[in-house]
Write a structure and sequence with these properties.
Layout: E1 3-8, H1 32-42, E2 47-50, E3 63-64, H2 73-87, E4 91-96, H3 104-112, E5 118-123, E6 126-135, H4 139-147, H5 153-160, E7 163-165, H6 181-184
Parallel strand pairs: 1-2, 1-4, 2-3, 5-7
Antiparallel strand pairs: 4-6, 5-6
Helix pairs in contact: 2-4
Length: 192
Amino acid sequence: MSPLAALLTGGASRRMLGRPKGLLPGVDGVPLALRAARIFEHMEIPYVAVGNRPHYEGLGLPVIEDTRPGEGPLAGLEAALLEATRRGHDSVLLVACDLPFFTGALLRRLLDAPSAPAVAFARGGLLEPLLARYEVAVLPEVQARLDRAERAMQPFLRAVGALVASLAPAEEGLLVDWDTPDAITAPGRPDR
């Protein structure tokens, strides 16, 4: 398997008052986007940041633009799949930039899962589309959905027959995202 990791950075961060979430300092003080990049580098996985946010170029991250700005994570996946195809990769590890606790072990589990159009963890009865593996073969389905203005990730994952990766109940906290200022200071975070 030859994956390309794609760090989604293109969101408007409305709930964070426009502050780019990947620039938030993580629990170790390192911006979340750099923390993710270090994990990819440690695992020797090539990566790109996906989004039209010049802030991330200042961190030295390789950045590619969204193919359809403002269209959400499915459009970010499209850009990542196109880049993976251009570079000769067979899959994309899609990672949201606001996941402060994900680990290389979780990425390894996605990589080691059996072949499937998509592989995602389940949490709370839903699949986690923003820490998942996607084969480049799903690109036509992604594009068809975007062309029909169908941007929801859950129906897409069901349509392509996503495989569920194992996740122990104690690991669910590793999938917590920082979508709001309150989430950053919430009690019960995995690091507390």
